[in-house]
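Task: fold both queries, return tokens.
Query 1:
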Amino acid sequence: MNQAPQSEDTREAIKRLIEDILLHRPPEKAEEFVSEVQRECGQRDIEFDAAAVIEYWWHLVRLGVVAIPGYAITFFQGRKFPTLVLTERGRALLEHGEKSPHDPPRYLNAVRQRVQDPDNIALGYLDEAVGAWAAGLYRASAVMLGCACERLVLILAEQIARAGIQPWSDKVQKTLGGAPVGASRLFDLIRECLIHLAGDKRLPRALADALDRKLTPIFEHARGLRNKSGHPTGTDVSADEAEAGLLLFPGFYGFVDGLCKHLLAMGDHG
């Protein structure tokens, strides 16, 4: 008989427990893994759900977080091999925690929690970028992530246009109101404006100090990947490149949101 569905909190607790076991005390035998999860659920007062364990386990296997050599090669040339291995890539993903896309619902929720008013269009692109990455469609992931970043650039540009920071507000407003323009041109205007504000000490220090660390490199990474993959050049995007963009995006969105809140306050007091 099938078990009744567990609450979302229980499933999340089981996911975190699985990751904790894999990172800190992985059993060498795959057949011991579920038993270990069940034992620690009892110790932590988490209701055990075998279906939730197996579902998340195979999700991690499909992503390459863990590898199962299989019993056919458990013994090879006199050597005994483990039947469960946490891969190098898997360890890196798990160590990134909620910033990693290996658990899509947690990743997307963590991004939403970073910002005051999440933009559904940007998050829709991001959701597709994560789905494509998980399916091994790295070019598609890069294109969708580039769209998400460009959406945030557009939001930031609209805030600058309303903030009354001359001459940049007028320049940005004119650019937004004209023929469709590339995100790079818009981004250049935004960066000029923000550097001016930082030089005049009209940006909080935390935002000013992070301009060249959190804004430009992440946008250029995403834009470069999108240009590389979004045109019919046949250029590949590697798993590492697609993954790097997704790991950087939460910080980029949080930083853009901080800038938008500050610009909104400037406009209100202008």
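Query 1 returned. Query 2:
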Amino acid sequence: MAEKTFQMLTVLLFAAFVINADAQDTISINVHEQVTLSCPLDLRACGRLHSVKWYRGADGRNRIAVYSDDLKVKNTEGPQQERLSIVHTTGGDVTELRLSATQISDEDLYTCEGTFIAPEDNCESVTTIQLNILVAPTKVVLADENGDTLPHNSALGPLREGAQLLLFCEAFDGRPAPKITWRQGERNLKGSDNIAEHDGVFTSRSELSLTLSREHLNAKIDCIVESPALKRMRTESVILDLQVRPTKISVTGVQHHVVQGTRVTLQCIVQGARPAANVTWYNSTRP
């Protein structure tokens, strides 16, 4: 008879763990920090508390902590045991599970289940929390097509109008994968992105290809890195030292035919060139 009773209790316990993903809370915390997971207890609808159990994982079977004032139990279990602690005041309507020195491996779904002596039908006894561990990128690097690092706000060039320019921006070892955006002034530029994962962290790499034109004269190109782990976005920038051809060349000073032996003054006007054009005069083929 005792064996049958134990089997029924086990079935009822696991039946309580039908997790509603829409109802779960989400907490994001930077790695190495302490996090507190709160489990509210509706004592008005549920009555007197018997025990609170914490589980880890989507299946709700990996118990990591248990508290019971009636049984004088306050235990933590599993690999996280030394970093876990339970905080509960007798008669209180909240139980807290504190996890110190968080690690990437702590990211998971955590479930709290309250067991009550005589609960009402409307007693909600299960709380689920998705814990996300954040890691700030260790560094952001902006480089040219040869892989040479470009110092922040440095000048790149001289570059030629019509040439193809390749820039690379990398954000290393972040979690989740850092987001990279390219920008020229207020205009976003489209890059080609790649993400690599190792040991639970991600390195994001983006390649920007530009066909240089007059619109890139003295342009500032920004690589902007965003991550929930960063208090503010990080930016690396380069200024393009672009050389462009003249847009117009004109010669003035003679409006009509001139008589042999007459002194005339000619002007050659070169517009739109960068750097300033060098002008050489020729008489036929002779300078």
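Both queries returned. Flag for query 2: The two ends are 116 Å apart (CA to CA).
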